[in-house]
């Protein structure tokens, strides 16, 4: 029959599939190697190239079977195991003759014997090791193109319904190759220049900066490197990252033929044999495996806060595990590592107390693992009858705190406890953790009935009790995708209701560069619903002169209250949250108090309002230390609102206003 590449696919006597180059896309070289010629356009993406290469390498050696032999069509087992499965399903299948499944079994037996013989190599893949060879060493493939492919030494796929699932398996393997390329990390142009052994690459610097721009701009939106870049980026990746790429390929389902895939990738990138040899022989200390190029959580935005860490989880860079003190040595070592992180990140918490809770058998620690090391965790205690869990400690090591790992950790924890019927999280958060927990859906308003939790959780002096309700209808691990889909649906609905229209541009400034137009004179502004505002900003002189003082003050306070860092200043400080607050602060004030006074017209002048506004920020800085989040919020808010407050107009003498400012 004819394969997808235009070549003829035949069966050999052993039941395997032999490959003979067809006249469509391939030709045969003198040494018997199929000399493939790409039919993809020059602008083809890496993903398209990988899919074609995978089919060219693997399609010819796909063994068909009429019976569902393996337990799963995507289970790629060793040849010995597959032979045992075939013989268990088909007793007496040792002879070459017989049904197609028996002939397949005999082909497996021949392949097994060939693999065990000395000097046998799996289809140009990594050089075969002896039984006593180290399993963690990396043997580079031959520097020359692989020899003629012996189809019996490659992969045996026995799909349930023949060719269809075999094609799905090829797609799965192609995605594995693309995933390996997606996780490669380029070294900086300066570092590459120092590596004199690497072959020259004229377009490397351009590709590097395009790759960095992709990590910052396109990857958080769901794009992958293999779908965005083409042959130019593939060439730079192969020249710079061939060693880690081969390591990833050899450790995956394509380990038996990674060299064949590698050389086909080099062919597509137009790498000469000398360049391949130099790339494989180059010695560099650069670790080209995936590292984090993630911006901070505050910069990622709400929709994509954990998207970068989710991509790292998919690539295998990070993983998660829930542990408890079950006396397993490896689990105990992991708990000790988590305990050390809690101790470093929570210096005010007694270490003995941390040890007691982490190793308490009623507590569990949900660990974040990166490169086989614990970099973060959350210690919690579930109360199954009450259907809530208390979060005792949560911390990520300081060097990994700005990459979205904390959000991903909490999302995984929510999905984990949801399986046990947990409906709420409760925790006492200190001043540093309140902002983080608010981002994760926690609130200071406790909606769970008090009789369900009162007396169960530990009370901490100076902490803020916060609650998070876990919705059974939300998949927290796909939160970014769900919200992104909702956003796109809203945008599509808006486009249907009001399709875009193009209005002619303005040319009046060509004759009168200093002309000032009213918004209503701009074409399209009125047509799309613009209307003059009834009120203007407090800084507008005309508005301020026409409006009473108390209305201007209320408007400034409304602007202040809407700031994302103003939540600690909305209401007076509660005594149960800070028992000694009113002993230290003798003249307390807050936004709600000032707003009530303004509505009652109790501010006689602008200076009186400015004085109380400044006192609110001064009180916060006096009670809280410079390292607290509240101290930083006070500075941020004062810098934000003070210019707007100064624009308030009244009849007070300027000297008095200046005195209040001082």
Task: Tell me about this structure.
This protein has 662 residues and is α+β, with helices and mostly antiparallel strands. The protein has four domains: 8-22 and 46-126 and 144-281, no CATH class; 297-478, Gcn5-related N-acetyltransferase (GNAT) (Aminopeptidase, 3-Layer(aba) Sandwich); 501-532, no CATH class; 541-661, Histone Acetyltransferase, Chain A (Up-down Bundle), CATH 1.20.920. It has 25 helices and ten strands. Strands 5-6-7-8-9-10 form a six-stranded mixed β-sheet, sandwiched between helices. The termini are far apart.
Question: How much is the average pLDDT?
Answer: 71
* Main sheet record: 6 strands, mixed
How many beta-strand elements? 10
Q: What's the alpha carbon Rg, rounded to whole Å?
A: 33 Å
Region (Disordered): 1-30
Domain N-acetyltransferase: 325-471
Domain Bromo: 561-631
Keywords: Activator, Acyltransferase, Bromodomain, Nucleus, Transcription, Transcription regulation, Transferase
